Amino acid sequence: MKSCLSILSLLLLFSINGNCAGSLHRKSTVAADSLNIQPAASAPAKVPQTGAEQTALYLEYLKGKKAGILVNQTSVIGKTPLVDSLVAMGVDIKLIFGPEHGFRGNASNGAKVSDSVDEKTGIPAISLYGKLKKPTKEQMAGLDIMIFDIQDVGARFYTYINTLGHIMEACAENGKELMILDRPNPNGFLVDGPLLEDHLHSGIGMYRIPISHGMTIGEFAQMINGEGWLPGKAQCKLKIIKVADYRHDMPYELPVMPSPNLNTQQSIMLYPHICMFEGTIISQGRGTYMPFTVLGAPQLKGKYAFSFKPQSIKGMSETPLHQDQECYGIDLRKYDMAKLRKSGQINLAWLIEMYKAYPDQARFFDMSQSKQMGNFDKLAGTENLKKQIIAGASEKEIRASWEPGLSAYKTMRKKYLLYP
């Protein structure tokens, strides 16, 4: 039977995705009832092609299905929001779900996002960051399938992998399939850090993984299933549209910034290395237009020449640490990221250096006077790191304490990889 796509839909399809040829290849995964759809063989692309861009691999499958979709501003085909593209191509989207920072990605860090109606499409938009962590039974009842397409950055404390887990839980509970339109991990080459200790589970760390997990969202979903991390070891039925021409070790520059305070490629690459500073008295540049590329505090005047002044910025950081105070410290905006890539390790030198430089070390990890959300132990995933830094442990000694857990994770991770 010929495709029922209208001529308009076909034109939109070809304008958004120039390579619509291809076949569906079914392949079982380690997760029960999972289905990976492989992109058609092609010559190596200059840049990876995201799952969303390969519309020929999933549009037919979505025909006739009532879909829910979890997206944010990174969910695009070319420069067009994924929701707008799919609606134009006839996909029946009933509900839009949004994570931290909201559906359009313009909410401040940690800010509550209210439910609304998307002005462009008229589709209800529901926040999953706040009171509601996952779709309700009533919301899921009106859906045949859930679609997940959000750009992750590969760090344990970046909340989108938690959102993924909640969505998988809702799908498993209600017998719905989850389609993941996979995207590259810009820090996919980095697998390092202490594993999260069980008693430190929180909203910034739900899974026993290192700080930088080195997986795409699709791979991580397989790990959640395979390791039995859903309540009752439930299994979520998965359909993963893989990224074409992607390797974990390849550089990947994001076409859309993933959140208000990760607004440059440099900040995205530095994020796994300096986010732990959110559990200290040191500012990471929130309240400036260069967040996660600078480090400093007012008390470091005279020890560093570089300075910056955090201020309230709507939609980014409205009550930043050290607001309206000159902060002195380290400028990483032009730091050679090839050094971090080559090392393959979380940088601990900056943390140790600034602790030693801070004049009142007893207050370095004391967040009682801070407006920040961080808790150092929860961000690090272990209570040991803070104790080790205070005790003057070397980087070598600190890294040795991450074993054998880190090596065990790396071995386990291999079972779920979709890409070399």
UniProtKB/TrEMBL annotation:
Name this polypeptide is given: DUF1343 domain-containing protein
Signal peptide: 1-20
Alphabetized UniProt keyword annotations: Signal
Keyword flag Lipid metabolism: no
InterPro entries: NamZ, NamZ_C, NamZ_N
Keyword Signal tagged: yes
A Pfam family per the record: NamZ_C
Domain of life per record: Bacteria
Span of domain Peptidoglycan beta-N-acetylmuramidase NamZ N-terminal: 68-265
Lineage, top ranks: Bacteria, Pseudomonadati, Bacteroidota, Cytophagia, Cytophagales
Domain Peptidoglycan beta-N-acetylmuramidase NamZ C-terminal, chain residue ranges per copy: 269-419
